[in-house]
Design brief:
There is one protein chain. A hairpin with a 5-residue loop joins strand 27 and strand 28. This protein is globular. Helix 5 crosses helix 16, helix 6 runs parallel beside helix 7 and helix 16 crosses helix 21. It is built from 22 helices and 30 strands. The chain starts with 10 loop residues before the first helix and ends with a strand. About 30% of the residues lie in helices and about 20% in strands. A 6-stranded parallel sheet has the order 4-5-6-7-8-11. It is an alpha/beta fold. This is Glycoside hydrolase family 3 N-terminal domain-containing protein. One of its GO terms (molecular function) is hydrolase activity. Keywords: Hydrolase. InterPro entries: Cellulose_Degrad_GH3, Fn3-like, GH, Glyco_hydro_3_C, Glyco_hydro_3_C_sf, Glyco_hydro_3_N, Glyco_hydro_3_N_sf, Ig-like_fold.
């Protein structure tokens, strides 16, 4: 038996044995990743492999396939022509079997899939988007969700996922804000660790684990003007302290793969940035996993960034800088052979990239267990347990921003509720970007959720859409106002849409019935959909203003992928819930919160400005950022960490275990938190630290710890946080992490603007 086929041998032994047997063409084949949905045809359940795929396998093999199971308008894979969970697993097996049996060395294919908030395949559970997940402040719950996503993905043969997204949001006009956890690197770092643990499990070779790919490395959330993939203007100290921090934490947790960002930083594209991909990632952090480009990123070096004169130079730049695999491009396949033959790329550079790809495949167990079980896929994908989990995540991440006069929770026993708005009953509008097509009934809308709560009294629920997300048509206003006039409470479901055109059509604004058209698309958020403003699109605000004139109790629910800035609604609505994109169970989750079955415990992870002109408005601004504008101060409408509850909490007795400590010591900060209301609730206790003086300028405040705790009425609990080097250090001289002696302010409280404060002196020792 050849060494690489012997499961008893080590991964290193097997990798080196296989590598030395490979031809140049076979090596290059391992570094390319074509579009997976193009390698097969689905003929009424019969999977036929394309001739081009067969040719590539015979020629030198294919290292990986991207999105074999991906379904969306971009891939043109639909419910009708796509693959069910069982059929999808069978198709992956067919592809894998052909690759193993018809390539010279029988190297299995690595199947890469999109799983940002659920596997992007037909039938898979659609969880809430990461912006809502961050709002839960519950990393254990998120890790559990990641285990479910990994199980659904691996059961169909997907072995690597292109998530989590660890970008730090700096300009929420950016359309990909919804894919991120928030604006704070510490919080993102905690979710990064939870993601890696959840996705990768105890061992990558388990059939319940997938390799995590950290993206987008780095600075992607800080682009110029909030425009996708725009230049990033950032110094190395800020880059290391803010944007690189979550990636470092995830690498330390054992992440198997990483994806550079499209953008440039200070003139150097991330795809060809040796300092980023070698000096920091490999040498400083010790990362030994695989680096894969974003889709078409190498092309951008020659046709976009223009740092390469042609495809040959682009390919050479990328692999020399540390790229191991090219996602869905042709530069490696076309030019790597020539680059090596002409001396542009050293053969050892090529071998090192191949070595990393093969190592990951061996770690995933693909050589020993290359096939999945279609029966298992049918059992676990979209299971009842995963739906319950999706509902729980959504409910924990919904944030109550306002509740004047205890407008919420709603009564189950009396009153008529008018559910109005473009997002009240549009399933795709609550799912977010990177979502597969959904069969009828798979998504519970807010209207569905309200009806389910009042199933015994359907006459108490009225509905009218009122308007679309976009456009200036008011043709639905009359029906919406007539509906609202009959109600005691108006539930106005507004926001945005990241729904690409799934061919579902728009809605009749008078009746709410579905109308299939060729022009439907209300998308105002998502990848590539960046905005100049943060106001509601279309005539949604005008609809709210007209309804408000009726004098009804007005409850607003936002379903959206980025913060909304509407001061009029902040002032005039009786209650406001921010639900982000809550996923397929979002309607049930929203109803759970609205009727008080779930006490809202979501907290903001992005600051919501009063006006777009305040940007950037994130809480980690420097002390020197200035005070105010002529028209308005610089404070947000709703600060980082903010969120209301149906109960109330008090904080008292903040103390440290010692008021002084040496640099290498640790102290504990503790505070008493008490539920002073009349119902059970969860509070997010937040620790912030401020360095009174430092050699290099620092943010005014930095989140350094958080705990989500549930308390019964009258119950109090002492919450403790350790404070040591990790909580006090920053990037100092020569970009080294350092703790400077001196005075630190320790703050614990409900959100960044509501804390108790004490002082800690750090001594040199």
């Amino acid at each position: 038996m050849m060494i690489y086929k012997d499961a008893a041998k080590s991964v290193t032994e097997r990798t080196e044995d296989l590598l030395k047997q490979m031809t140049m063409e076979e090596k290059i084949g391992q570094l390319v990743q074509p579009f997976g949905w193009k390698v097969y045809e689905n003929a009424e359940g019969q999977i036929n492999l394309t001739e081009e795929f067969r040719r590539q396998v015979h020629k030198g093999g294919i290292g990986s396939l991207y999105g074999v199971l991906r379904a969306d308008p971009w891939t043109e894979v639909t419910i009708e022509n796509g693959l069910s969970p069982e059929l999808g697993a069978g198709a992956v097996n067919e592809i894998q079997r052909y690759a193993i049996q018809h390539s010279r060395l029988g190297i299995p294919i690595l199947f890469g899939e999109e799983c940002s908030h659920g596997h992007m395949a037909i039938g898979a559970t659609v969880f809430p988007v990461p912006l809502l997940i961050g709002s839960t402040w519950n990393t254990e719950l998120y890790s559990k969700m990641c285990r479910a996503v990994a199980l659904e993905t691996r059961s169909q043969g997907g072995a690597v996922t292109y998530s989590p997204v660890l970008d730090v949001v700096r300009d929420p006009r950016w359309g990909r804000t919804e894919e991120c956890f928030g604006e704070d690197p510490y919080l993102i770092g905690e979710f990064a660790v939870a993601s890696v643990k959840g996705l990768q499990g105890d061992s990558l070779d388990q059939q319940t684990s997938v390799a995590a790919t950290l993206k987008h490395f780095a600075g992607y959330g800080s682009s110029e003007g909030g425009r996708n993939a725009g230049p990033v203007h950032m110094g190395m100290r800020e880059l290391r302290e803010v944007d690189l921090y979550p990636f470092r934490r995830a690498v330390e947790a054992g992440a198997a793969s990483i994806m550079p960002a499209y953008n440039e930083i200070d003139g150097t594209p991330c795809t060809s940035n040796k300092e980023l991909l070698k000096d920091i990632l490999r040498t400083e952090w010790g990362f030994d996993g695989m680096v894969i480009t974003d889709c078409g990123a190498i092309n951008m070096l020659a046709w976009g960034h223009d740092t390469a004169e042609d495809g040959l130079s682009a390919a050479a730049q990328a692999i020399t800088a540390g790229i191991d695999m090219e996602m869905s491009g042709e530069m490696f396949a076309k030019y790597l052979g020539e680059a090596v033959e002409t001396g542009r790329v050293d053969i050892e550079v090529l071998d090192q990239a191949v070595r990393r790809v093969l190592t990951l495949k061996f770690r995933l167990g693909l050589f020993d267990h290359p096939y999945c079980d279609p029966k298992k896929a049918g059992e676990v994908i979209g299971s009842a347990a995963h739906k319950r989990l999706a509902r729980q995540v959504a409910a924990e991440g919904i944030i109550m921003l306002k509740n004047e006069g205890q407008a919420l929770p709603l009564s189950r026993t009396n009153g008529v509720i008018a559910v109005i708005g473009p997002n009240a009953d549009q399933a795709y509008n609550q799912l977010g970007d990177y979502t597969s097509p959904q069969p009828d009934g798979a998504v519970t809308t807010v209207l569905d959720g309200i009806k389910a709560k009042l199933a015994d009294h359907p006459e108490r629920v009225l509905y009218a859409p009122g308007c679309r997300i976009q456009g200036d048509s008011r043709e639905g206003f009359e029906a919406a106002l007539a509906c609202a006039a009959q109600a005691d409470t108006v539930l106005l479901v507004l926001g945005g849409s990241s729904a690409r055109d799934f061919g579902e059509g728009t809605i009749d604004l008078r009746t709410g019935a579905s109308v299939v058209t060729d022009t439907w698309n209300d998308m105002d958020c998502g990848e590539g959909i960046d905005r100049m403003t943060l106001t509601l699109s279309g005539v949604q605000l005008q609809l709210a203003q007209e309804i408000h004139k009726l004098g009804k109790k007005l409850i607003v629910i936002y379903i959206n992928g980025r913060p909304i800035t509407e001061p009029w609604l902040d002032a005039h609505a009786d209650a406001i819930l921010e639900a982000w994109y809550p996923g397929q169970e979002g309607g049930h989750a929203a109803a759970d919160v609205l009727f008080g079955d779930v006490n809202p415990s979501g907290r903001l992870t992005v600051s919501i400005p009063k006006h777009v002109g305040q940007l950037p408005v994130h809480y980690r601004g420097k002390r020197s950022r200035g005070r105010r504008y002529l028209e308005e101060d610089s404070k947000p409408m709703y600060p980082f960490g903010y969120g209301l509850s149906y109960t109330s909490f008090t904080y008292s007795d903040l103390r440290l275990s010692a008021s002084e400590m040496y640099i290498e010591d640790t102290v504990e900060a503790e505070v008493i938190v008490k539920n002073t209301g009349d119902c059970r609730g969860a509070e997010v206790v937040q620790l912030y630290i401020s360095d009174a003086a430092s050699l290099y300028t620092r943010p005014k405040l930095e989140l350094k710890g958080f705990r989500k705790v549930e308390l019964e009425p009258g119950e109090e609990r002492r919450i403790t946080f350790p404070i040591g080097r990790g909580e006090l250090e920053y990037v100092g001289a020569d970009y080294k992490r350092v703790v400077e002696p001196g005075l630190f302010h320790i703050r614990i409280g409900r959100h960044v603007d509501d804390t108790l404060t004490t002082e800690l002196t750090v001594l040199e020792g």
